[in-house]
Design goal:
Length: about 250
């Protein structure tokens, strides 16, 4: 399935001062400049193609004020202003960044006017609110498990949800994949007929699908409608910068 054609809307993009590179590890600094990914930056350093003040430095070198960084003899570009975009991801778009995959979110990212990456993910069979950004600090704030940020989902399952199943989901359930046993934290769950609303602070891989399977339910559709205080109201396929007021909703 091909990604929906994105509608890039005019908005007040979140434009802050350029992200400073001072204090970052060398591979992080190269990635933050927008030149390439962190993994690709690590390869450049290992291949001795990066110089700092005319000398080679290891990956863990911390960038200092006044450092002159070159890659293949060219000056490292200045990092772009921090931005965060909203994307209403359709079903069928894979959040793994794979240039050769026609279903990959890469096909959207290469059409945007600056280099962004997904903050977290929604699996290919799910839809809804996905954030794209070039701000690593924001990514940590919103997606790292320690931050406990709420994410709200609307889920349709294959049968009417019983009170017992709702209570089990709310209390936390377990499932095993290979040799690993996973547990869901207690969460907010409401149910009406075969419709569920779940508010999670975890982000385990395909978590809601496994949670539902653990109580005898099969997910038919899964849609994310909220991250922290930011609600999704845009049409499917929409991709646009967040307004200043929307950025405040994420940071508060």
């Amino acid at each position: 399935m091909q990604p929906s054609e994105p509608s890039v809307l005019e908005s007040s993009a979140f434009n802050d001062s350029p992200t400073t590179l001072v204090g970052l590890r060398l591979n992080q600094a190269i990635a933050h400049s927008g030149l390439c990914s962190r993994k690709a930056a690590a390869r450049l350093i290992s291949e001795q193609r990066v110089l700092v003040n005319g000398q080679q430095q290891p990956h863990h070198y911390l960038v200092k004020t006044g450092d002159f960084i070159q890659v293949d003899g060219e000056v490292l570009p200045q990092p772009a202003p921090r931005q965060c975009w909203l994307y209403h991801k359709p079903v069928g778009v894979d959040c793994n960044v794979k240039p050769g995959d026609p279903n990959s979110i890469w096909q959207l990212l290469v059409t945007l006017p600056l280099r962004l990456f997904p903050l977290g993910r929604l699996d290919k069979d799910s839809s809804g609110l996905l954030l794209l950004s070039n701000d690593g600090a924001l990514a940590h704030q919103l997606m790292h498990a320690d931050q406990r940020q709420q994410k709200e989902y609307r889920v349709e399952v294959d049968k009417v949800v019983t009170a017992e199943q709702r209570q089990q989901l709310a209390a936390g359930v377990s499932w095993q994949l290979g040799n690993t046993l996973y547990h869901s934290d207690p969460c907010l769950v409401t149910a009406q007929q075969n419709q569920l609303t779940l508010v999670l602070t975890q982000g385990l891989n395909r978590q809601i699908r496994y949670m539902c399977r653990a109580v005898g339910l099969k997910v038919l559709t899964l849609h994310r409608v909220r991250i922290h205080q930011l609600q999704l109201s845009d049409p499917v396929g929409c991709c646009r910068p967040l307004s200043a007021s929307e950025m405040l909703l994420l940071s508060n």
